[in-house]
Every structure is written in structure tokens, then in C-alpha cells.
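Entry type: protein chain
Record version: 2
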Amino acid sequence: MRISTELAKAINDQISYEASSTQAYVAIGSWCERTGYNGAATFFFEQAAEENTHMLKFVHYLNNAGAEAIIPATEKPKGNFDSLESTFQAGLKSEQTVTKLINNLVEIAEREKDRATYSFLQWFVSEQIEEETLFGTILQKFEIIGRDKLAIYQIDQSLASIRSEIMAKGDSQQPPAN
């Protein structure tokens, strides 16, 4: 299997974004931990691990396609936030950007009639639906429960179960093989 130069570059750009997302979620998790939001800290550290796994999937895919996976340096992520809600707003914005980037990769694969890459990307398309739903569901909690101290405490405590519920809905689809 060979992959075009354009598609390899676009996937390397995705690798870079996934690496930055990993670091951003670690930074958010660290802020949450320092601030006493232990549920959110666990949530964001798990998100970071997931983004790292996504990055590695792209690295393996390029390597197996005979292209060079370029491992990027990343910029220092934001380390302070105004509120717990703002961390989830940042997460949703990041996931919406990833969705656009994945859709762009799909468009390139379609245009080039690269069916192998197109097939590989379908798991990521489904994954992004789950990710945006997850962050949207959590942000809804602020609207439903509120933003006072007790509401924020309840949201923080519920994060593990919210993540499990949303992610369980998508468990029927397994990640692509290396």
C-alpha cells in the first residue's frame, strides 16, 4: 500500500493536532487536580490517553503505508482556566476542530480514491460523533444542574459515569488495527 504525498502530509498534520490535544488535556487535567476537581481531572487524563492512542493509530498507519510519520514538538498548552465549565468548552471546541480535520482527511481520501485510507478513517468519523456528544452532554449539565458550588460538585462527581455511559454507546465499534 502506498499513500500520496498530500494525504501523508495531511495525516502528519493530524498527528501534530492529536499530540497537541494530548498535551492540552493533560494541562486541563492538571488544573482540575490542583483546583480540587478530582472527577474532572480523571476525565481529562483519560481524554489525554485517548488522544495519544489516536495519534499512535495515525503514526502506525503512515508507517505501514510506507510514508514517514513525523513526530512533532508541541507548544505549551494553556494551564489555567476560569471555571470547570470553561474546561469543557475548550474540550468541545477542540473536538469540533478534530471533526473538521478528520472530515478533511476523508475528503482527500475520497478525491484520491484511496479506499484503504478512507476505510481506516471511518472509525475516527464515528469516534468524533461520540466525542462531541460527550462534551455536549457534560456542558448540558451546567445548564440543567446549575453553576453554584453544589452543582459544580455534583457535575464533578458524575463525570466518570457520564463518560462511561456515552462511551459505552459507541463500544460496538472497535478501533482500527495497526
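Comment: Residues 95 and 132 are 6 Å apart (CA to CA).
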